[in-house]
Amino acid sequence: MKRVRFLILGGFLGAGKTTAIARLARRYIDRGLKVAIVTNDQAYGLVDTQSLEAQGLNVGEVTGACFCCKFDDLVATAARLSADEQPDVILAEPVGSCTDLAATVAEPLAQLYGDRYDVGPLGVLLKPEHGRKILGGSDDVGFSPKAAYIFLKQLEEADVIAINKIDKLSSVQRQDLLRLVGQRFPGKKVLAISARRGDALDALEQALSAPAAKRTRTPEVDYDIYAEGEAELGWLNCTVRLTAGDKRKPFSLDEVVLELVVRLREACAMDDAEPAHLKVFGTAEGESSLANLVSSDVGAELSLASEAKVAEAELTVNARVAIDPARLSELVQREAKALATKHGLSVEMANVQSFRPGRPVPTHRMAVGQ
Hints:
The protein is an alpha/beta fold. The chain contains 11 helices and 16 strands. The strands form 3 sheets. Strands 1, 2, 3, 4, 5, 6, 7 and 8 form an 8-stranded parallel sheet that branches. It has a 6-stranded antiparallel sheet with strand order 13-12-11-15-9-16, with helices on both faces. Helix 5 crosses helix 7 and helix 10 packs across helix 11.
């Protein structure tokens, strides 16, 4: 049986993993390869899965915990995707607050399922919005040192580090980040890319096509700090259904999706709560719209526009914010209702999941050199 190339592309919340994976998938498909994608989240109702499926990609998901804690589900999902249509490449997107992937996912896949999967180098996207502060030693990161610990451990275990979003950085900022990464992690393969614009995707694809590195050591991870860093974030997934009072007066899908993210940004700022990632995906009548926010220092962005006027829409909200999850739920529901009132819409909230991630308990941990 032909082995399937298995690529893991990690990175902190808001690093641009989904955009990069969609870009890579399309490049492989354009060369005649079959591609499957596995998304991952602590909750259910994933914006990433919906946005990738809206692009016509073959997607499975592992929900309820990270890949390391649901390793058997990851293997089962990959097998199901392979049974449906044997892929040449599987791209896996782990939860953005997860680390220790080399020891808990990559090594177990290679050692236990090496006859089935050809596991490639572990790629990690560096999120510049928080990376510049964390690597630069700033006291105003927006997160505690425990959350920053996860960010740094992701980079430490990476075989390939890709500094993403260079289209939003000045040349000085880009060179500064390259210098900081080089100083902190000497000897690493480091790239500077823009997944959104496509800059240096050739280099990323080439780096991921190399044989997996023969690790002599996987990083040690303090699971107490790791767990507390994850638990700092409030996690919320929910559905917001909006309906026009008068079907003859449709509303802009793009406008309501973007405005909800803007409202949540302002609400988080009032509570002095740092967003790690806010995403709202709207669908209506076969049209899709996506807006997101990745830091308090930047504005909300409409990353997928539909230009559609609709009478009703369903919005999927995924919010990861350094705030109590009950308070996060209050903010999301309050701002969704205020948005509906402003536009003369009725609103229905459904599938609300709000919590702090639990302590990671990996199915396997195959550390090297510890």
